[in-house]
């Protein structure tokens, strides 16, 4: 199936692609709900009157009927009541995911515990980050592996995940080296470069991600959502403790950390050893790896529903690129850069048939946003730290 297929021929579950703006908006909404993982097996819902898949199909039919007969505007009570009944079925799925008092209470208490440790024992925040990551990240991966309709395991190749894996690996190496007395072999210059790269990325990209990304939210009962919040929020918090409480960290862990370069002074701009340069080098390391995977390793073809010859592809895996495009980015790229109609963009979103030009544009925008965060947000955080330290010395 060609990505340039005419919008008049394309359909989504029987809904014509270009009948009306309402129909197009409906198609867009239904594409986005596919990423909510509502298509679970019936055995995952105990004592449920129907599967969530049936509820989702019924919901689609009801909305199509509302669009066709304008029943929403007339306020047909029966239609609204039936929709609410089937929304209740979705709540059963949420219960199956862990929406109960115990999980909610544990999530709340964990947030309070992190805040308490940050205030009372900031020198232990990095260790708490490492310990909780050992639980959150594998648990999240388990859910991503079982996600439907597509396996989400390759989401772990995204930049934010890459950054957290790097931070965890670094702390793990520091701990293991300290236990076996190998820390002297890790040159202070290497530590300084890693710290500079982390400072720019954590205070730049991840801080801005917390502000900009809609899925970075606080839902105490939901492991998936809390893990997303964890990987975006905790690294900047860890960096905060290393900058403001470095003396307490060195005192508590003298065999693990040497932060003398903080006292010598750091520069954000200028030279290859500046914070901006180290952070940029770190970002482009990931950027090259991800582009190679997507274009050279076949990642861009993983979720496609059709092969180049037009036969069904039976996809199994999803990627962050395809998920982001389905969230509406494809429509924006198509409108402003590719000259596509909304119907054609929706067809691509329904089939994941994005081409290499779409991917290249996506990566250019990702690069611009990330480097802007490093050079602006990261610098503002660094400047605030430097100015406040100067005032403290006075």
Automatic annotation (TrEMBL):
InterPro entries: GPCAT. One of its GO terms (biological process) is phosphatidylcholine biosynthetic process. It is found in: Membrane. The keyword DNA-binding does not apply. It is a multi-pass membrane protein. It comes from the Eukaryota. GO terms for molecular function: acyltransferase activity. Coiled coil: none annotated. Its main location: membrane. The chain crosses the membrane at residues 102-119, 154-182, 194-220, 227-245, 281-300, 359-380. Keywords: Acyltransferase, Lipid biosynthesis, Lipid metabolism, Membrane, Phospholipid biosynthesis, Phospholipid metabolism, Transferase, Transmembrane, Transmembrane helix. It holds the Pfam family DUF2838. GO terms for cellular component: membrane. The keyword Acyltransferase applies. Belongs to the GPC1 family. This is Glycerophosphocholine acyltransferase 1. The lineage of its organism: Eukaryota, Sar, Stramenopiles, Ochrophyta, Bacillariophyta.
């Amino acid at each position: 199936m060609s990505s340039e297929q005419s919008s008049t021929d394309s359909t989504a579950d029987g809904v014509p692609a270009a009948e009306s703006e309402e129909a197009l908006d409906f198609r867009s909404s239904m594409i986005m709900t596919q990423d909510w993982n509502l298509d679970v097996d019936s055995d995952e819902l105990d004592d449920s009157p129907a599967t969530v898949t049936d509820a989702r199909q019924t919901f689609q039919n009801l909305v199509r009927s509302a669009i066709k007969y304008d029943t929403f505007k007339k306020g047909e009570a029966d239609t609204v009541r039936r929709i609410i009944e089937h929304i209740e079925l979705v709540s059963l799925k949420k219960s199956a995911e862990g929406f109960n008092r115990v999980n909610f209470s544990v999530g709340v208490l964990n947030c309070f515990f992190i805040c308490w440790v940050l205030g009372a024992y900031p020198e232990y925040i990095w260790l708490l980050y490492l310990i909780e990551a050992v639980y959150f990240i594998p648990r999240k991966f388990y859910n991503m592996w079982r996600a439907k309709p597509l396996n989400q395991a390759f989401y772990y190749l995204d930049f934010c995940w890459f950054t957290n894996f790097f931070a965890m690996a670094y702390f793990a190496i520091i701990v293991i080296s300290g236990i076996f007395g190998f820390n002297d072999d890790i040159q202070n210059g290497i530590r300084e470069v890693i710290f500079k790269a982390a400072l720019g990325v954590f205070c730049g990209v991840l801080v801005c991600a917390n502000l900009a990304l809609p899925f970075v939210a606080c839902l105490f009962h939901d492991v998936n959502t809390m893990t997303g919040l964890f990987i975006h929020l905790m690294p900047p918090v860890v960096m905060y403790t290393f900058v403001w409480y470095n003396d307490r960290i060195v005192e508590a862990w003298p065999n693990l950390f040497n932060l003398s370069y903080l006292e010598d002074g750091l520069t954000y701009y200028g030279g290859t050893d500046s914070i901006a340069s180290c952070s940029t080098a770190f970002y482009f390391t990931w950027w090259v790896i991800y582009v190679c995977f997507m274009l050279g390793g076949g990642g861009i073809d993983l979720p496609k529903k059709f092969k180049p010859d037009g036969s069904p592809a039976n996809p199994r895996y999803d990627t962050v690129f395809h998920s982001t495009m389905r969230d509406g980015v494809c429509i924006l790229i198509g409108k402003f850069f590719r000259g596509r109609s909304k119907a054609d963009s929706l067809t691509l979103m329904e089939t994941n048939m994005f081409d290499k030009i779409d991917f290249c544009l996506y990566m250019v925008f990702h690069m611009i946003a990330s480097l802007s965060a490093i050079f602006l947000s990261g610098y503002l955080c660094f400047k605030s730290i430097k100015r406040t330290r100067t005032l403290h010395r006075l």
